[in-house]
């Protein structure tokens, strides 16, 4: 028997059901399901996605058996609907719609009213008794078919010739709307349309209903590969090889009179999740009128009950039944023909993060689903939780600012921010020091670690260069700042202190607004406010005052019940309290160097020191600051583990030619501080210069060459730990050696750390349990993990650097090719956002296996940016990690993603 | 039974033999072998290396049983020698010498004449009838023991107090040499020595012979870990955990009168390999006198026969017997006591590359060994072949130039070169263009690809920065230039055009000389000439005129018989002929971008092009040059495969801010050429800037974004191939895609290449078989090799970049920590010289396994610098590679190393 390519539905039965989305697409599977469940569905059939794949691969050829199966399915439809396709007296009309496994709204093609021609239109007139309706339907059909199937093109003035004809007809008739045109006028329009087709395509408009149908089916399959659809799939990660199904269905008419209507609806509110049926409808119209925007639709929840009381009752009952059946908010399309409701589609509705949380929460409260099902990533994509944390613009305010729109960049840090343009970190700090309440948007070509303190005081970051994983983007997410990167139209002139797009020029100090959700940049101010959840977490609002917070909190509680991965924060003392508020179970990465940027004189003296002795002296000055920092951190995290990474960045981040150029006299000042000559300063700076800093003298390579630094940092850590313990708090320090590639490097540094610990403990007369572990962030470390685990008591995958080295791609430089790589499908996703599982992930697995072969209970975590990416968190769960660590604001996301991973595993 | 820690020898028998070097050390094993074979060896015993390891690990404790076994062994010696250790009337004196598995000449300690005290010295006088001899021996013993065992220290004036005493005694006695001192004077000296010991160490000099012996044994074991020995082992890759053996042996005396002598000898010449016994000796002396340099030794081959005819005859016979027994040139130590020859040591002699080749060759000719044995890496270390290819200084000339010595750097490119200092590549080229015979030494802080053409015309390269794998070092080896890098004392002032070390200043144009064998830099000229082998390969000498060449050629022939790896060259058209002369079986890496530096205008126009169309136009201008280049290359390599790598370096190597700064007006010129504005030029240059160029927009990432370049290069390759074929030569092009990490990248580029090939072949009406393969040079490529091999028809490991990414170390920047890493034993070797087998090697194996799982007959090679490193070649053989590719001058080394690997495998 030939493979089944065609699945029929209608008349309370169907070949398929809702489980068959892969074969029938979402629309087809749900039409089958509705038919089976007794919902009023016009009869029809679905041609499978496999046919699309075959068609696409074989230049438009159909697999064997399709034609015959379609003919048989048409017969079934004719039987069920009591009409005949192509009949001169009782014609069946068909629609033809795409329907992929995942909804791709508006991306593919649709043809309605298939089967109309000069003969059947006469039959339709006779049957409906409505000549205007019949000609209107025919006009719509010829227009759609001409566009979609025949590919009628725009004229020299870039006008749609069909629209031009309608415009002229309206003018001639002296009416404003299409629906005011008479049957005769529509008949004339049809003739004109056909003339255009003949002119442009050199052939007559097809009269044969069967030819029309196959044309429409082919067009739907073809539309899977149109540009829009390809771009959409790339953006949403939908595989190109899935293909779409084609749904052929008997037409029902919402345009047969005032007892007819067409509409779309939601069983709850998709924006905020509030219960209650809502949607748009139009009386006496066909489906495309609702979305076309020519007539303004009415709101179902406002007037439909009054307009069509019986249909309203039937529709809301159908909505309730569907929601009960699907156990989720439904997005439906319907037509009312002569008072009778017909269902054309139902599907789980798209929703915002706010709505997702509320609906999942409410459905549990209503007893429809349990808490485990509430966490299903289909219901709450973990990333969407972010929306609950970000300040928001009032949509009305933003709309009002449309004429202020400057440009659009990459939406790298979700959030809304308005403030004064500031072009340097120094200026930002200076202004902040004058007025802590100042709102600043730091606008730079790109940012570097220098700019950190400026970024910290800014409300938002905007850069002209860089991608979604550039320094600006990473740090913004870490800091929870609104951020837009890669806004390439921006011209930044540091000398003139201006930011311009074309002839629009903003000066430093002028107001600017960025919407980190969308990437939009506006001149001027748009007001924002923190989200309710943030207000509660910050203590500005009581939990009981915010229903949103209560729902968020409940969802988080369910997530914590199910997840197996621990979730920690990448945080320093400044943001540790926030991390704890977000639910961090420890610190997975405290970067010790952030603080050094506040003590540049001392670190520079250390860099310029020419002997171990003078270096020691310089380094000793930093100890009290580090100790204070660590004491604060340990106190905030009392009772929780804290992983502190030793100095990581290359020293030229603290002192380079750029610094000497930007600050005249700095060389002299430093020479005096360090007791060397100006020439020594310049020589040392030139020695520090590196061609590839990412692969240079950094990480533990610093500690090996300058053990004084490691010793100072370790001493500060353990003195802080002792002080914290003596203040009555539990403290669990974990010292992390960065950039280890050789077991010997680890041993060298671990020995210095352990010596420092012993010295501190002896002096204090107390001991604190601690561990010494390592980052796994270069491929060699993963490959030699078995050896390294002989000494290392924990591993933490530094997936940022591990991705850079495994892929040989600098995240600071990949903007010049990565956009094109994404566009050309060279890479399936940005590897700095989502772990490259086949490459980096394989290396991680080698590292995990190696490490645990030596130390079966080795604690392994991840502290790269990927720790806050849901897909990557799921991978970490599957790979057997103990924890993920991410920036504080990603913690809720990580908690939920970890639960989703555990639930998916079953 | 306790483990055997002590092995006796003497009296024509021994517990051990020559096979036991690991346990007995080289000296001990050969003493045992000689005793067994009936050579005259003073009796003694060897304490094993295992004891040293135990002693070293346990703070100077000996394993159980050692003390007893030593006592028993002493008894045996007493029996054999007919004397008694510590006896008042017939005292046995002992020597105590180190002896590791591999010879470490002069690095560890020796004590002679053990057993002498106030009583035994009297017995020695009585027995020998020679009071002066006895007191001289006692003086030597107290001095050596005081130095080595008791650690007597230098005084405030940094004078050795023992030497001061002798000096004073000589002055007082009015004599010039030690041996002119009388017995009484020596007796007084001994008393003074003992006083110094008492003063410095607060204890009497030990009188008890057994205490003396254990002190000496302990000192020898301790000396395994002295600084000198540790540094030596690091330099020669001898594992620290081996330990040394200690050899205790009955003293024989070369200082008992004029029928006594002591000496060292070689059975052939170690410098050039000429046959014939040769060496140094001293009449009436002890061993240390020969090396101490106080008396000038006489040459054995000149006067020994006349001085001591019987001993000469015995010695030369022993030499012949030893060589026949060991089948290799022997390095021996001997003492003649009262006319009788005693053997104190024999070992396979160290030899230069020249001698190694001659001796191996001659021993085969003499029928002593076969050709397989001749290739043993112990006989000809593959690296040493290099010496046959490099120009050389006359040693006398170099000695004469000693006062001109400026500094010493890292000997990165073996060879000798003298010439005028030139500080920029441009100046070098300009001078070369004026006079092709000018000798230039390019002196730079560091070099970059810009400097290539300058390097090509220079005789040698000297840099102040960079390590053995810096750009300068790599390219020098590639070009076969003498090169010294990292000569850190050099101060280079480009503005003043001077090179200085301290107050010695050379101006541009002054003469300078570099010895790339040793790293020495001299002011002024020292004459050099090309080696004979090079003269023959260059056609300047006929093969039959050079015995050296004939021997080299024979060795190469034997290597080719045994090796399984193919050997190819990394070469472009300029050096392809040389590569073939060296025996290249194909080109493994032709870098297509070298030629671009000669057409900067065109490549810069390409870079500045703003549309694919103008880019195509610019690129088209480069096609004829590339085609010409490839045609030359194919013609030179007729019948052999040629692997051509597509454009690899980032575009800023061709156009950067540095270029614009260095060449005023360049921006304007380029704007005109490319038809853009000056601002466009600067904007584009700033876009091209990268923070980590190594991980940036290069390799196939260029080709993916700019397919025009790939298409042009592929077209040039295939047009050249067609032209070469039409000229009657066989041609096998292999197109190599660089820096592939994703299968999709390879597919993208391979498609462009195959399209270009098809177009060229169709136009030409002919077809040429070709393959398209990839570099495996980033970890992801190795990890996904199975997928990549679906498309790639060959792999070539780019181990330079693979090492950089796998280790996360930039070879341009590792100078700041790698020297310290080597010194602290963090890394066992420079990973850019020898493949890091545990890390990079493991990844290579993953890549090989992956690639061959998809394509079992996949051809795999290596084209990194490691392809010319013997240890790495051996690894490549073991890993199952098909070929190695290296710079032309490393080909002989690679051929030999490949043979050695195949033979070692058995």
UniProtKB/TrEMBL annotation, chains A, B:
Reaction(s) the record says it catalyses: pyruvate + phosphate + ATP = phosphoenolpyruvate + AMP + diphosphate + H(+)
Domain PEP-utilising enzyme C-terminal positions: 550-901
EC id: 2.7.9.1
Cofactor(s) it depends on: Mg(2+)
Domain Pyruvate phosphate dikinase AMP/ATP-binding: start-end pairs: 22-59, 67-300, 312-363
Keywords: ATP-binding, Kinase, Magnesium, Metal-binding, Nucleotide-binding, Pyruvate, Transferase
SUPFAM superfamilies from the UniProt entry: Glutathione synthetase ATP-binding domain-like, Phosphoenolpyruvate/pyruvate domain, Phosphohistidine domain
Keyword Protease tagged: no
Sequence ranges assigned to domain PEP-utilising enzyme mobile in this UniProt record: 441-519
InterPro entries assigned to the protein according to its UniProt record, in alphabetical order: ATP_grasp_subdomain_1, PEP-util_enz_mobile_dom, PEP_util_AS, PEP_util_C, PEP_util_CS, Phosphohistidine_dom_sf, PPDK_AMP/ATP-bd, Pyruvate_phosphate_dikinase
Top enzyme category: transferase
MF term (GO), any: pyruvate, phosphate dikinase activity
NCBIfam families for the chain: PRK05878.1 (NF004531), pyru_phos_dikin (TIGR01828)
Function comment: Catalyzes the reversible phosphorylation of pyruvate and phosphate.
Protein name stated in the entry: Pyruvate, phosphate dikinase
Native species: Alienimonas chondri
